[in-house]
Amino acid sequence: GDLKQLRALTDEFTRFMLSYKFAVDEMMTKINILREEFSHRHDYSPIEHVSSRLKSPDSILAKAARKGCELTLAGIRSDLHDIAGIRVTCSFISDTYKIFDMIAAQRDVTVLQVRDYIKEPKPNGYRSLHMIVEVPVFLSDHVEQVKVEIQIRTIAMDFWASLEHKIYYKYNRAVPERLLAELRDAALAAGSLDVRMERLHDEVIALRDLGGADDGVMDAR
Ligand code: 0O2
What is the pTM of this model? Predict the structure, then answer.
């Protein structure tokens, strides 16, 4: 009867969401392995932190409706790329591309789409490296290819994006022009901070490789 139908429906939806959870778990393991192995090999970690989220059923439906995609699980699965999301925050711009390359090179990861908003920032100033990948999830009786959106950015880009996101929603997507201009300006400042920090980091590495820096450097601050 109705109850049985409803059970089947919720069961189908639960399995739909679970496949994204498994894909995130898998990608998180991959990224944590890269992070640990890299810091073992190079004495520093290119990754500051990693976070993940699954889109809530409410925002999945809202985005599906907004994009005008077919309102079935199959339609949503094919048109929404960010049900599973991972955000990797790095110290420096060069690290974001390193992480990108290491993920893209993995044999069971298929890169479906790349958006490089670092090379080409959005008009509002947003910078970040986005990739949509597909990973195989091995279930009891079949293998499923599941999409995950990965956003890779620096600490400065992340700082800017979280503030912009708050302002955007505070003003219900209609931000006053004065604030928009300030945000664009702040994005430029964040961009030049990234460049300066990376230059300093390169200098420290070069000094270290020359054996020029010793333990006294820390004490002399
Ligand atoms: P939320 O609330 O973070 O989930 P497409 O999916 O291909 O039709 P979309 O979604 O615009 O196009 O792709 P894009 O441009 O790669 O952006 C995807 C995500 O990047 C967004 O997800 C945000 O998380 C982030 N993002 C993109 N542009 C901006 C921006 O201007 N400011 C900030 N703060 N974040 C941005 P959602 O679903 O839009 O939002």
Answer: 0.92
